[in-house]
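Sorry to interrupt, but I need a hand with the structure work. Please put the record directly below this note.
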Amino acid sequence: MAKRQPAEPLARTAPPAARPGGHVPFFARLESGRLRLVQGPIDLVLDIAGPGAAVARSEAMARAAFKGLLASLVAELPLLRSPAGPGAARPSGPVARAMADAVAPFAPWFVTPMAAVAGAVADHIALAARSVPGLTRVAVNNGGDIALHLTEGARCRIGISDYHVRAAVVEIAAGDGIGGVATSGWHGRSHSLGIADAVTVLTDTAAGADAAATMIANAVDLPGSAKVERRTARDLAPDSDLGDRLVTVGVGALDRVEKTAALDAGEARAREVIAMGRARAVFLALQGECRSIGEREGTGWHRPISARS
């Protein structure tokens, strides 16, 4: 799914050596008061609620956990770009291990630990931030993949987009057991084997949601269709973990029969993932057609709804 820079302006200008996208860790305060952490491709926005002293301590813990994170992942990139499955070597870093664990259930299909990188990073920073007592909410948004922690009585509303418009708002409560929300699709900077505009997954961790959303989005497809433009991943990014596999770079206007066929394939995969215990709720979107599967089934996602069915 698209990993966009936050639309909210910064409260101050970043020093030239630490601008977003560079390799120097960049910490900034957004006008809303939220903290933004950036280094290389990692771009996090932290939404932490609680007493002022607790929030300040939580942000300090998050900043400490952020330092060195990118370097630790880069050190294990060859392994993280290798397919999951029997015999795959075990990564050593905590975030890399979380990535491998998140994709392991999907090894029968092609997947690498990189399918869970954004969610695993969000989980890692959220775990550090939530270690401070007294907080009511910790949400770490990594370009749309969100790690979430709520304490008793707290609630959080998250917008669900079909890439073109906001399709729904989901309300999550502390007791719902939702700790991760992630979205995948062919429009984003991460390549997809399928044609979904967006597949959003709610589950217990952001890494798990990230991996599941990737696998389901890959299944929303019309193999062999002339309306789908594909190129090898290696042509677009020479170091891509997808290698010579064909990824989607364009989708023409589909008729109702074509959209139904592609969404049926994605729904079948979504139900498999839910049956595996790797997703609680799944939202599929393709050219204006939307489906909700799992705990949200039958709601249509067209209005604010509870995280419980």
